[in-house]
Write a structure and sequence with these properties.
Keywords: Membrane, Transmembrane, Transmembrane helix. Pfam families: WC-rich, WCOB, WEF-hand, WSLR. InterPro entries: TPR-like_helical_dom_sf, Wolframin_Cys-rich, Wolframin_EF-hand, Wolframin_fam, Wolframin_OB_fold, Wolframin_Sel1-like_rpt. One of its GO terms (cellular component) is endoplasmic reticulum membrane. This protein is α+β, with helices and mostly antiparallel strands. Among the domains are: about 90 residues; about 140 residues, no CATH class; about 80 residues, no CATH class; about 140 residues, OB fold (Dihydrolipoamide Acetyltransferase, E2P); about 60 residues, no CATH class. Helices cover about 60% and strands about 10% of the residues. The strands form four sheets. It has a five-stranded mixed β-barrel with strand order 5-8-9-11-10. Helix 6 runs antiparallel to helix 10. The chain is elongated and about 145 Å long.
Length: about 850
Amino acid sequence: MATWTQNEPTGVTKRRRWNLEDRASLNKLKHHIAEEGCPQMQYDLAKELLNNAIVEPNLAKGNQNQKAVNWLVSAAHNGHEDAAKLLRQCYNDGSGITAENADEVRRCLAMTPGERAARKAARELFACLSNGNEHITPKQLERKMRRIYNLQRKRRRRDDDRSSSSSEGEQEPECEPLEDVPTIDLANVERRRLITEAHLVSAASNYSAGQMPSVNDALTLSVPDPRSLDHVPCFYRMIFHPLIFFTLFYHRLLNLIVSIPNVIPLSVRCSVLVAISWWSSRHMLPLVSYYLSLGIMIWATCKMLKTKQQFVDFRIWSGLFLSYGDQNIEADIAEQRFLRNNMKPYLYFFCAFICNLIVYPLVTDAWLPHSELTIISGAFTFITMCVSMYASSHLLPDWLVIVSFAVNVLAKYPYEMDEVVSTRWRFLDLRVPTFSSFVIGNGIEFCLNCRTALYLFIPVLLIMMAKRSRWHGVYTFLIPHCVTLSWLQVCIATSQSSTVFGVMRAALGLAGIVLFLPLFGIVALLVPVFVAIDSLGLASEQLRWGSTALACGLVVVLSCILALNRATKKYITMLQLIMAVTTACLLVFPYMTSSFKDTPRFNAMPRVGLHSLTESNTLPWDRFHALCAQPFYEQPNKIKAQLRCSHLNGMPVTWEGSVTKVEISRVSNFLEDFIANYLPVWLGRMLRCLHGENISQHFKCDPNLDAQCEEWRSVIKTFNEQSGSCTLQRWNRYEYELLVKVGTKKSGRLLGRSATTDVILRAHHDFGNFTRFLSEGDVVLFYGILHNSRLLADNVQVKLKTIECVECRSRDLGTASIERVVAASPMDARLQDLMRGIKYLLNALLNPLITFK
């Protein structure tokens, strides 16, 4: 192509020079460089072709212009603005424009300089990451974007100059090799979506138009990966990773609320609106409008918060394109377009807010949970304020947002409704008038005071927000801040009718919703410990507390170790669920076996002392005596009377009689039976002293009332010194038998008969405190159920349910009862027991959020 000449002229300085012998070779080199994507060389070739077409018109002018247009299109796509201007001139003149390239030329000219620069940056980014391959992975792109974003944050934090920033940027590797596919685990392979150059170019176009690139759906930039805590058992995620747990919960809750309109079909929504229009009367329409507007406000606010999170991702895309682009990247314009494109939720919010304020005075207070609404509106107030404080890229919060919020609180807070402020915090009472007031209309008074001055200062602060960034702060700062002030207004309006207890209930309910899984995990671990320790029946209070604390600590440490171990962490959740179910059964079991002493377990029974039981409810004594008692004694063959009377089993009775004898009929102690029959003597003696008490401590008597008290104490002391034994008598369960003579002269005046019959009352263990104070001759009124009526028994037997003292020696005796539903079968009673036990369990877990009565 070039040869070096050796013959130099005489008297001339000797230097090397070369002569071009073949200009066609130089043109081939230019074409090769242009085809490699050099925009300047493409522009030079296009300009040369256009000039040749003008200088030599006899050549194939159309073919020359068409080639020039193709080169100009390529150069414009690569961000060459002079090529774009020349291409527009050719399009206006029609030079080189054909049917084949007209559409492509129009698309190229329709792009803004920023879009063309972004598309060029996307191509360079793909070339850098792919290393000649046809695709890249989302993990590569995400890692690169995070690296650039972190670098930019460091630059803003250090506030360095351009030179130091560029030097730091040179230290970052520009290109990354493609991932080694065999090293990727199966989970990443399944979720991976390969990204091609066309995807990145399309993302650049969407970015320039102010829209979130579709590629962003495969990335997790500003939020943690939704599956980042899948390796941790669900009940331990908040304990081991609290920040990630709450961040994921926040974003998942936003996504759930935002997706509600998409989940509900259009037909269902239309049907609901039609039903509301039919059912809405004059009084129901404000209520429906209020809750509908409140729901729209909540949905729109969540949509705004979701947009704020997407805006952070959008800024990361800006940093990516700025790193690979030139000065034509319009990052600020693209971000402003993104904010303008997402203004629709704000419109929905303010329309719903206006409707909410209009219908609020029309709704009856009984239909509004003011405390819950106060907590919800207060939560949205502080969430939106915290988000709007960091609307810019600065690390420090926006002081203007904080000042504006504080001024609004001082100006709108109802001081006259707050007793604390009105009586103690006098420095916050801004209602003191500083100027004279004037009545300017019917019910309108013009009054200037400190609060009025604050109200006048609010528009000044809002205008200062709007003036930022050449009035682009209207949708960047002002409108989001107005959402915060709107929720503040709702919070103030609802708080005036709320109560302290209601606010606490709502706050605990909200905390229960947020912390349900962690709290359930802790409860599932510790409640079984409490139940187990309580079932041991330890006599010493110190031993009880010490063993409880030790057991809880061991359970928590052991569960954490199991949750961290790879081999056992997948079983710990199931173990906790099994423990929770077992605990639930243990909590429900007492309801299935006996009653609580503090409140009735069953439906309310008529009190026997109030004479509310009629003959249709119970069997009177005179009728029973005529049907069963008298024939049983008079007839020599008692079989017929016994068979007839057996049909009365289970019938409720309310009789009155005189007590003749009280005794214990049966004693049961399952703990003593187990120790005596299944454990060795030395272990049984140890367990008796652990769960029971010393015999001398168990025996109690009063020497003033009992003449043999001292002798008993001496005998027991001697026996205790010899054997050192303990007793488990406090675990005894007794059944009592009361012999009552029914039909005495006292009751004869009431029943009209003088016949008497002995009735045996079988009393439950819970009647122990009552039966111990009964004496012979006490008159009682009892309610119970006939049992083995004249069948295989000499006396009438009644299962005692309620007993009331009519005339007793002891003044402490009143009424004792284990009332049950009249005429209820044992299975029905068990089912009712089970239902009440389940309600108790649910109340223990969900109260105060949900209460089952």
